[in-house]
Amino acid sequence: MMIKPSTCLRNEYNDIAEFCKTENQPVFLTKNGEGDLVVLSMEAYSYREEMLDLREKILDAEAHRLSGAKTYSLDEVNKRMEEIINGTD
After folding, report:
1. C or N terminus of the chain, fewer CB within 10 Å?
2. Strand, helix or coil at 12?
3. Average pLDDT rounded to a whole number, residues 4-31
4. Burial label, 16 (beta-carbon count in 10 A; 0-12, 13-18, 19+)
5. β-strands 34-39, 27-31: how paired?
6. Alpha helix locations (H) across 1-89?
7. Share of the chain above pLDDT 90, in %
8. CA angle 53, 40, 29 (to 5 degrees)
């Protein structure tokens, strides 16, 4: 984990950006000794957002299942997919 004072952002921007991109890790910036910002590469940020979105969808599906929504076995899904692909639905 890299922690830097916020003043380093201006003076060491290229080094911070390179670290985030090559190490695929965030840099935590402090202001007056307190946590202030987190810097991530665009790739790491996009990946994080995709994983959070997927997690939300999984939790939503699990909540529906637990509330009694109809579920399907893998065989039922495969059969339905074949029907759709073959146009026999």
Report:
1. N
2. coil
3. 95
4. middle
5. antiparallel
6. 7-11, 13-23, 42-66, 74-86
7. 92
8. 125
CA–CA gap between residue 48 and residue 40 (Å, rounded): 10
| Cα–Cα–Cα angle for 20, 34, 8, rounded to 5 degrees | 45
Look up residue 16 and give its two tokens.
């911070």
Mean pLDDT value across residues 6-33: 95
DSSP class of 68? T
Q: Which of helix, strand or coil describes residue 53? A: helix
Q: Among 29, 36, 33, which Cα is nearest to 3's? A: 29
Work out the mean pLDDT of the chain and round it to a whole number. 94
CATH 3.30.1370.20 assigned to domain 2-40? The reply is no
Whether residue 79 is predicted with pLDDT greater than 80 in this model: the reply is yes
Q: In what order do the strands lie in the sheet with 27-31?
A: 2-5, 27-31, 34-39
